[in-house]
What we know:
Number of domains: 1
Structural class: mainly beta
CATH topology: Thrombin, subunit H
Number of helices: 1
Shape: globular
CATH architecture: Beta Barrel
Number of strands: 7
Order of helices and strands: EEHEEEEE
Radius of gyration: 15 Å
Distance between the termini: 36 Å
Largest sheet: 6 strands, antiparallel, barrel
Strand content: over 45%
Amino acid sequence: MIRSGSLKEKISIKRPERQSDGAGGFDAVFVEVLSTYASVKELAVSNDLIAQQANINGVLEFKIRYRQDIIIKGGYKLDWRGRRFEIVPSFGSSFVQKEWIKVRAVAEIETSDNGS
């Protein structure tokens, strides 16, 4: 039996996919690529990060077990406890170690309710 240890928080990682809008254009829809458990840690916001992002209201590090079958990239979304986060490549979309993947994400400020 595998024990979860500190990986107690359920998360969902989603990647953007283009979907036709029926008028000759495309919309981005987010499709789940991974549903797993993670440990969550709030990080202090550095001055460099503040300079890069105008509306930062939280930076979190999500730690999951290493997976060969998934590559996590900047621009992906991460859902946790009903909140959506954006994985930002400018400060590392993922840090792969021998046993863990650490993903840093910023809280997304959503101005529309389009369900994506």
